[in-house]
Amino acid sequence: MTRTDPRDLAGTGLSEAWVDELVERTLAEDLTGGPPLPGAPDLAVSFDVTSAATVPAAQPGTADLVARADGVVAGLPVAARVFTRLAPGAVLTAGAADGDRVHRGDVLLTVRGPVRALLAAERSALNIASRASGIATLTRAWVDAVDGTGAVVLDTRKTTPGLRPLEKYAVRCGGGSNKRMGLYDVAMVKDNHVAAAGSVAAAVAAVRERAPKVPVQVEIDLPEQALEAVGAGADFLLLDNMTPAQLREVVALVGGRVELEATGGLTLAVAREVAATGVDYLSVGGLTHSAPILDLALDLRAG
User: Fold this and answer.
1) pLDDT tens sequence across 215-248
2) 51, 68, 124, 135: which has the fewest C-beta neighbours closer than 10 Å?
3) Where is the Quinolinate phosphoribosyl transferase C-terminal domain (predicted)?
């Protein structure tokens, strides 16, 4: 499946304003001083010294964004906007869509425009797409590992500062789901909150009074804490660093009454065993904090 317009953000959940701001910040990191590039006279820092020295100003060209490894692609519409920020008249053709499984050598996006602008945009576009695609690729490995168990793979808040919307979108491209976007959409009662409030029941009650419409999750690390948390009014439980045997015990105690999420110390090697205990979710910080990039490159063609 490909988009008619490779820059189209429909269905990504990413806002136009946020993507524009990310593109601007990313380009500003790479371009430092000098005359403006074609199409970007208002970008305060817009000079690629190597391309300006080696490429004639009016030279057109075509470049392919190519996969150098097998994986799952994500972030292509954002990468496309990097190119068109510096070359507004560039013609883009999609070769793949976010969420697609791709193979080494596949052309993901083709861009035709001024060569100077394409080369100036190259690294910024690749950094975005490679990072997002790496997260999507790792997520898909986890999703495949638990396929058929009914368990859902979730991300966490362990994201790169400033890139959370992109990285959580990449998780969705890989077939995973987002847990919470921040500290505002789910109340997570952890041991420090319990210590401050005096008890699990007091902590949950305080959240209910202050934010009655916000779902409440309680973190537990022993099966015997499950009944207390459910009795206190938790909507779902975070089962931290429990063994498969402990997870099965919690499922037997409160499964079906609240949703159960396993987390902590999870690896691909044990993912299916954990999912088979009957928990509803596996939350994996490594999806975003430890995903290697997917190797992508930009190949310039003559003409």
Assistant:
1) 999 999 999 999 999 999 999 999 999 999 999 9
2) 68
3) 135-299
Q: How many residues are given for the chain?
A: 303
d(CA 169, CA 111): 23
| Domain residue limits at 165 | 146-289
| CB-CB neighbours of 223 under 10 Å | 20
CATH number at residue 118: 3.90.1170.20
**pLDDT attached to residue 45:** 45
Residues 48-76: tens digit of each pLDDT: 888 888 999 889 999 999 999 999 999 99
The pLDDT value recorded for residue 5 is 82
Q: With a cut of 80, say whether residue 39 has pLDDT above it.
A: no
Cα gap 247→65, rounded to integer Å? 44
**Furthest C-alpha separation in the chain:** 72
Residue 35 has pLDDT above 50, yes or no: yes
3-state per-residue secondary structure call for 257-296: CEEEEEECCCCHHHHHHHHCCCCCEEECCHHHHCCCCCCE
List, in sequence order, every beta strand (DSSP E) within 143-204: 152-154, 187-189
Residue 260 makes CB contacts below 8 A (sequence gap 6+) with 236, 237, 239, 247, 250, 251, 254, 278, 279, 280, 281
Q: Residues with catalytic annotation?
A: 123, 158, 190, 219, 240
Judged by DSSP in three states, 298 sits in strand
Cβ partners under 8 Å of residue 198, min gap 6: none
Among the listed residues 188, 127, 133, 123, the one whose alpha carbon sits nearest the alpha carbon of residue 162: 127
- Same-domain pairing of 40 and 67: yes
**CATH number where 171 lies:** 3.20.20.70
